[in-house]
Amino acid sequence: MDDVLDEVFERTLKKSVFKNRRVLLPDYIPPTLLHRDEEIRRLGLVLAPSLKGEKPSNVFIYGLTGTGKTAVAKYVLDKLVKKAGELGVRTRYVYVNLRQRDTPYRVLADIAEALDLRIPFTGLSTGEVLGRIVKRLNLLEDTILIAVLDEIDFLVKKHGDDLLYKLVRMNSELKDSSISLVGITNNIYFIEHLDARIKSSLGEEELVFSPYKTDQLIDILKSRAEEAFIPGALENGVIELCASYAAKEHGDARRALDLLRIAGELADRLGEDKVVLEHVKMARVELEKNRLTEITRTLPLHGKLVLLSVIQSTLAGRRYGTTGEIYDIYKRTAIDIGLDPVTLRRVSDILSELDMLGLISARLISRGRYGKTRVVSLESDAKTIINVLSEEPFLGESSILDRIMKSLGI
DNA sequence: CCTCCACTGGAAACCTAGGCTC
DNA sequence: GAGCCTAGGTTTCCAGTGGAGG
To answer: Distance from residue A195 (CA) to nucleotide B22 (C1'), in Å?
Structure first.
């Protein structure tokens, strides 16, 4: 037994294609950002007044995922704050991702924390938190706070633009301090459904990030690979393949880096001393599987049940199910395992949510006399989903999953 | 050209579990 | 402990609606 383990340990410890795997992780900000000089310069230009103690304009940054919006924002602000420190100007910044912190309260709590305030995770009114921030900023005289609100469209979609309005208006209550907003979104149409008051004040400046071209992706991957891998660890063409896969996904650099990293991890796991093209292809499959597992796992219970019902509705050789059919199946399953089923209205919403997550495709069609409904089909691997669902106590112990697996021939 | 199906999607309100202040 | 806050998931109610079949 020991020998087996020893071998595993040896293998992981001794040989690795990596020199420094960290530089390939999504939240790593490299010391220099390639092919974003213009964007860096322009954002710097907008925010530079803070070095003279003046309030910078609010900025809006648009661009698809993996175009370096977050990286550029963090990069510029890190440098800005450092420079401000040297000059003795009080400039701070907060970075908040509004997809993860998608309520007004949590956003305010994060901003408050950046000002060294302690805020409980629930209990206070948003107005109270806002008030404390104002008080704090007035106490810290001449402080310029820059709040980076990443994926800002998520908050607005769920809770409206009230918070943005309040944050913008907060400046009128501040004496010598100020707050500026940097909004980041990958939804170009986002600004259109903003209130006119906010649109004008938040969009004082606008930056648009265009996707990376394949050769730019290659540059980026090469420079990171030099840091990340030991020399000679990459077969010729590995980087190019990662780049071309990612270029197909609208030049998404994050995806390119993920592919490269996972390809490397696969090589390590297989005990090979070189990353080859085949590893990249495997990495692509793995990446999709991880995403699916992660999303499915974090689904609320009824979301999982509805997803399972979608699988069942497409079981008997059918390509899609309708909302009504899926609801019937769902209801039966829920009662079967001793759960109160939710209403059709709710299931309708859950189906939309699953669609947005990309797990299923739900297209709205009208079948004339036979009413309007959503045509739902599974867009992901049923086997992976069922594996995750079997972790669920309610489902794991029932025989439903076994039955489905049999029908699927797994 | 009109009807009417099978839902969709908006709005408000409810419920549970948490936490503040006084 | 009262009274008032929050987040999330949900229920209740209801006014639409695209287009096949009459």
So the answer is: 38
Instruction: Determine the pLDDT at residue A287.
Output: 87
A248: CB within 7 A of chain C nucleic strand: no
**Range A37-209 has CATH code 3.20.70.20:** no
Under CATH, which architecture does the A299-408 domain have?
Orthogonal Bundle (1.10)
How far apart CA A325 and CA A313 sit, in angstroms, is 7
Round to whole Å and give the CA distance between A389 and A311: 12
Average pLDDT over residues A58-74: 89
Chain length of chain A: 410
DSSP A196-259: HHHHHHHTTEEEEEPPPPHHHHHHHHHHHHHHHB-TT-B-TTHHHHHHHHHHHTTT-HHHHHHH
CATH number of the domain located at residue range(s) A2-18+212-295 in this protein? 1.10.8.60
**Has residue A110 got a pLDDT over 80?**
yes
Residues 279-308 of A with CB under 7 A from strand C: 300-303
Q: What is the mean pLDDT of residues A157-182?
A: 80
Within 13 Å of residue A190, how many CA atoms lie on the same side as its CB?
26
The nucleotide minimizing the C1' distance to residue A347's CA is C10
Residues within a 7 A CB radius of strand B: A 120-124, 322-325, 327, 344-345, 348, 351-352, 364, 368-374
